[in-house]
Structure formats: C-alpha cells, structure tokens
Specification:
About 5% of the residues lie in helices and about 55% in strands. It contains three helices and 51 strands. The strands form six sheets. It has a 29-stranded mixed sheet that branches.
Length: about 500
C-alpha cells in the first residue's frame, strides 16, 4: 500500500490522487485497522485512522471531508497512506529550526484550528470540545513559540524541547482549565527581550508540574514562570536561570511537595498573589517537600512572598535576598528587601529553612500577622544598616512581625546586624520549647512562655566562628559579625 500510494502521489494531479486514494483506502481499512490517511496542509498533518474515517466525501474536485474536517484541496500539500498510528486526542509539535511540524490526531481535526507560521505554532480548540487533549512538544528552534487555548483539560509533555522566542513568550497555555506539564529529558525555554508577554512560560489554568526531566526558563522581558491559577510542583527539576521580574509568579496558591526549584531573579523569587474569588489556600505558599534555592536581587525584592500564610512542613529551602531599600510613594512607606515576606502568618512545622537578607533595612522574615515555629530547623541572618528617608526609617531585623512570635519547638538560630533586632515584635514573644539562639544589636527578651532562657550583653561575635552559650552552638556565617551583640539563648532544662 505504501508503494502504491507513493506512485499515485507522483503520477496524478492532486484531485485525481485523492479520489484514487479514497478508493484504495476504503477496502484496505476493513482489514488493516492501523492504516492511517495523512492529510498535510502546510506544516500541519492530520492523521486519520482507517478505523474511524467512515464515509469520506470528495466534493466536485474542490474539497475533501474526513471525520467532519473539510479540507480545501487547493490548501492540501500532500495526501499519503501509511501504517503509522496516532493516538486519539493527541497533538505533537516537532520544532525543526525555522519551522515546526505539527501532527494532529484525526478525531481532533474538526475541533482545532492550527496555525504554523515558521516555528510559531498556535492551536485553538473550539468551545464545544471539552475532552482532555495531550500535547507533546519536542525539537529545537531559536525563533519559535507555542500558543494553546481551549475549554477542556490538557496535558503537556516537554520532551527535550529547546525553544527560544524572538517575538514574545516561549510557551503560552491560555486554557484556564486543569493543566499537567510533564518534563522528559532536558528542556530549555527563553522569551524575547521585549514584548507584551507576562512571562517566558505562561499558564492560565490550574497547573501540576511533574516528571523525571528538567526545565530551564529564562525570562528576558518580565517573569520567568506565571500561572493565573494555582501551581503545584510535584516532581522534576525546574530552574529559572534568570528573570527580569519574578522567577515564579503564581496566583491563588503555590504548593511544592517534591522535585527541585532553583530561581535567580531581579524581582521576587516566588510571588503568590491572592485571587479575588479564590478557594482553599488562596494566597498561600505551601512548602511540604523537595528542594528550593532562591537568589533574588533588586530594590525591595523578596525571595519568598505570599499574600496570605506561608507554611513549611518539610523540604529544604535556601533563599538569599540582596538589594537596596527605597521609598514607595504609592504607599508612603519604605520598601526594603525581605527574604520571606507574608501578609499573613508564617508557620513552620518541619523542614530545613535557611534565609539570608543583605541590604539596608533588610528583613530575614517579615510576617504581618505573626510567626509560629513548632518544629524544623530555621536559620535567619539579616545584614545591613539602618535605612532612612526623610523622617522614615527601617531597621535590619532577622525576624519582624506585627503579631506574636511563638517558638514551640525545633532549632531556631537568628542573627541581625547591630542596627537591628534578632526577634522584633511589639506584641508577645513566647518561648515554649525547642533550641533558640538569637543574636542582634538590640535587647531581645521573651515576654512569656514555659521554657527558661538567658541573655548576654555586649558579646563579640566574629564571622566564620562558632558561638556557644549554655550548650547551644551556632555556626556564624562568613557575612555576619557584631562587636556588641545582644544574645538570647533558650533550650529545654535551662
């Protein structure tokens, strides 16, 4: 059959070729269910299975209708029959330099509009089709992009994809439904330096990131990754190699239970915004597993930021924020860098969290509604001087909140420069358990709690040494020193 179809393709006009193929294809399909009729329009191939084609209509030499899809013959570049098999509800995009080859399963042909201009691919599913569509993106292009829209769930496999856009975002999924993204092999995305894109990789939907492979994102214009609904990182390795804005900007909530996430950004590292009509976990950052590394730079930047509660129950997080403070005229206040910033509570129940804040007025933890540590290992260091703007000022505190601070367990080591406090609150500071060493430039003493403590004045703390008080030790980072430190120590039995 393949040999015969190739002879037909070479020897007949397009209309006669199609008519002959239809005559051949019909009887063969009764015996060979794997036979596929491939109708190619430009760089898009629609793969119709013989078992599904049914009656095919050849209209007056001008049109061909297969599985509800009507082709204008003047647009058809080739028609072939082979023994390939394309699964239902699948679309494959293979980037090949300046072009992209798109293969669409026959059952989808009438439901999707596909445009491939060079290596810029645009796929829109009609509003009546709500079944899940599975996409596979592979290949390489230095001037390509992918756009998708629809009304149903979708899954995406990035299979050794290297895609750089010269015009806008690299990958845009504007579906608004449940989206799963699976990483296979090594995948690299970068967007244009200019454009209207929100991010290099943008998803309007509820996203699960999974896989055994890697994904590297570079946001040359704004954000690296942006989702307009929640995002959950389950497995795989994601790197934001650089972002002019936020590394990960997520609306509703961001939850990480596995895998790894590494971010370098000039804006915020992870920024979670609350939706006006959000559901459970709205505005929350939830860390329950995996490994996170964040380096955020720039004026007033935040490494970990959320509009509501930040909760950590597991995993390993290392975050650094470096940058200057500035006066924000819109709120008539100073905005300094914070390594962890939440408009709600910060709650730690497990895991290993290391935070480093560098800059004038820097904060390690800045939690509006309070801080609760029940378990885990928490290390926070804030270095920098007092920042002043006219009559306003902000101090470099390791932990700062407008609510209560409760330490109920775990290992807590915090240090602030000579201009700041280790634990700063105008409300309650309660120590009920755990091991605590707090070093700062100002006096810090619990207001209550069930566990004993001791304080030490005018202590010399040298960079890179080990501080030891009452059997509690703290490895002092190389970027921290204090000639007149105030030290607070607490542990069981003290």
């Amino acid at each position: 059959m393949n040999s015969l179809s190739s002879h037909i393709a070479c020897g007949l006009t397009l209309g006669k070729r199609i008519a002959t193929l239809l005559l051949l294809f019909a009887p063969v399909s009764q015996f060979v269910s794997a036979q596929t009729l491939n109708v190619k329009v430009g760089e898009v191939t629609y793969a119709h299975s013989a078992a599904q084609t049914g009656q095919m209509l050849f209209g007056n030499g001008t049109t061909l209708t297969v599985q509800g899809k009507t082709y204008t013959l003047a647009d058809v570049t080739s028609v072939t029959v082979d023994d390939s098999h394309v699964a239902d509800n699948t679309i494959a995009v293979n980037y090949q330099g300046s072009a992209a080859q798109v293969t669409v399963a026959g059952n989808l042909a009438q439901h999707v509009t596909v445009t491939a201009e060079g290596a810029d691919v645009r796929i829109v599913a009609d509003s009546t089709y709500t079944d899940e569509i599975s996409y596979t993106l592979t290949g390489t292009s230095t001037d390509g992009s992918f756009y998708m829209d629809g009304e149903g769930k979708a899954s995406f496999t990035l299979d050794n994809l290297s895609l750089a856009s010269a015009k806008g975002g690299a990958v845009t999924i504007d579906d608004g439904k449940k989206i799963q993204v699976n990483f296979v092999g090594t995948n690299v995305l970068s967007d244009a330096v200019t454009g209207s894109q929100k991010a290099c990789f943008y998803v309007n939907g509820h996203v699960d990131l999974t896989g055994s492979g890697t994904l590297s994102i570079t946001g040359n214009c704004r954000h690296g990754y942006f989702s307009d609904e929640y995002t959950r990182l389950v497995s795989g390795s994601v790197t934001v190699a650089g972002a002019k804005g936020d590394g990960f900007h997520v609306n509703e909530y961001f939850q990480m239970s596995g895998g790894s996430l590494s971010i370098v950004s000039e804006g915020d590292g992870i920024d979670v915004g609350a939706k006006r009509k959000g559901g459970d976990n709205n505005g929350q950052l939830i860390l329950s597993g995996g490994e996170v590394t964040v380096k955020a730079t720039g004026e007033g930047s935040k490494a970990l930021k959320a509009d509501s509660t930040i909760t950590m129950t597991g995993g390993v997080v290392k975050a650094t924020t470096t940058g200057a403070a500035y006066y924000d005229a819109t709120v008539n206040d100073i905005s300094g860098v914070s390594t962890l910033k939440t408009a709600g509570l910060f709650v730690m129940k497990g895991g290993d969290l290391t935070l480093n804040a560098e800059g004038a007025g820097a904060k390690g933890i800045n939690a509006d509604l309070g801080v609760v540590v029940d378990n885990g290992e928490l290390t926070v260091v804030a270095t920098g001087a007092l920042y002043q703007y006219n009559t306003l000022d902000t101090k470099p505190h390791a932990v700062k909140t407008d609510g209560d601070i409760q330490i109920n367990g775990g290992q807590v080591f915090v240090a602030a420069s000579s201009d700041g406090r280790s634990l700063s609150t105008d409300y309650s500071l309660l120590v009920n358990g755990g091991t605590l060493m707090a070093i700062g430039g100002k006096k810090c003493e619990p207001t209550g709690g069930t566990q004993g403590y001791k304080t030490y004045k005018a202590q010399v703390i040298k960079a890179g040494t080990t501080a030891s008080y009452n059997g509690v030790t703290f490895e002092i980072p190389s970027n921290y020193s204090n000639a007149k430190a105030q030290v607070l120590v607490s542990k069981p039995g003290l």
